[in-house]
Design a protein that fits this description.
globular; 11 helices; DUF4015; single chain; TIM Barrel; 2 domains; alpha/beta; 366 residues; two-stranded antiparallel ribbon; GTP-binding protein
Length: 366
């Protein structure tokens, strides 16, 4: 005969073993889901550091990914102001205090949570638009010919894309983000400022490179250590890079970028095209046509690269998920307009895309 205490102990043991088994099954299911979704085409949304640091906002966005075809997020690592969104261990970051006001209290915990949900994680690193670094270390900034620090139309300085010190600074940020667990690093503002070629400025261009060569070389140097860490590399480019014959003075040519990254993301926002582009009277009102034209040109350029024996990047465009009130105040961009852009991709045989909304509010129900 078993005593009561023995029976209670046996029951407790069985319950514990069942719970452990369930936990292991759930864990393996989550791991399997993560692996499966990472193998799929990337369909993601942008998330700012401040939103990523808000548990309530992240709960809502993860809910959006659960109920739609979306399976990836692009999270700010280093933002448009040159600020890190988390506490960094990179000495150069700590020296200038670029991580003093982190928006995300525990970025590794956030990444782990996203991975448990089967979500592909991309860390966004804004490169040469870095007013914080340019102000803290003025020797790294773009300078006017009179020696003063050059500033853009918003009064913000940029760092010099020719300076290898700037390259190393950003590569170290990217390496840290990769070590934290991001699946991919995305370089944004990997270019010279708009309109800079008409300005009286001087660069630290010891090699005598043109702008496109400088961007190409930065990406070439950046991808190697990141690939060794097992992460992919992508870069954002202007939407017109798919179609123009030059680098528009900003150093972004399709060949220079597409041959050095795993994925290239042209920002094909219809609102950003001038009236008449591609023969379309009002591009903002024709999302399908704009994306279709841009992707036709992008595919053609990748085809030329492949014919030359080069390996082009996967095409993964940024799509417009915001209303450009400054273009057409009464035209609201919602689920319908987003799906028209995605349909244009599908009709071109493309699947990957990213949705951009600076406020991280997505009217998407697919």
């Amino acid at each position: 005969m078993f005593t009561n205490s023995y029976r209670i102990g046996l029951k407790f043991f069985i319950v514990v073993m069942l719970l452990v088994g369930v936990s292991q099954i759930q864990g393996s299911m989550k791991s399997a889901a993560a692996a499966a979704r990472k193998d799929n085409h990337v369909k993601g949304i942008y998330i700012s550091g401040w939103v990523a640091g808000s548990p309530a906002r992240m709960d809502r966005l993860i809910g959006l990914l659960r109920r739609t075809e979306l399976n990836a997020v692009v999270i700010d690592v280093k933002d448009d102001f040159g600020r890190l969104t988390y506490r960094s261990r990179v000495p150069a970051i700590q020296q200038i205090g670029a991580d003093k006001r982190p928006a995300i209290t525990n970025i590794k915990r956030l990444i782990n949570r996203l991975h448990r949900e089967g979500i592909y994680t991309i860390g966004r690193v804004v490169v040469f638009k870095d007013p914080y670094l340019a102000q803290k270390r003025t020797s790294l900034a773009i300078h006017n010919k009179n020696g003063s620090v050059w500033k853009d139309g918003h009064g913000r300085p940029w760092v010099d894309p020719y300076r290898t010190e700037v390259w190393n600074y950003n590569i170290n940020v990217a390496k840290e983000a990769a070590a934290l667990g991001f699946d991919e690093i995305q370089f944004d503002y990997v270019r010279f400022p708009e309109g800079i070629r008409t300005k009286p400025v001087k660069f630290a261009n010891k090699e005598g490179w043109n702008r496109s060569k400088a961007i190409h070389q930065f990406l070439h140097e950046a991808k190697q250590p990141l690939h060794r860490l097992g992460v992919k590399v992508s870069a954002d480019v202007f939407g017109l890079v798919t179609s123009t014959s030059d680098d528009m003075g900003i150093g972004q040519s399709w060949r220079a970028v597409s041959t050095e990254v795993d994925a290239i993301s042209p920002m094909v926002y219809p609102s950003h095209y001038s009236d008449g582009m591609y023969g379309i009277a009002h591009p903002d009102m024709a999302p399908y046509a704009v994306v279709s034209h841009a992707m036709t040109d992008a595919k053609r350029r990748n085809g030329y690269l492949a014919q030359s024996g080069l390996k082009p990047a996967a095409i993964r465009p940024w799509l417009q998920c915001f209303t450009a009130t400054w273009v057409h105040p009464h035209l609201k961009y919602g689920d319908r307009e987003i799906k028209q852009q995605i349909k244009a991709l599908h009709d071109q045989g493309l699947e990957d895309y990213l949705l951009w909304n600076a406020s991280c509010k997505y009217d998407f129900n697919s």
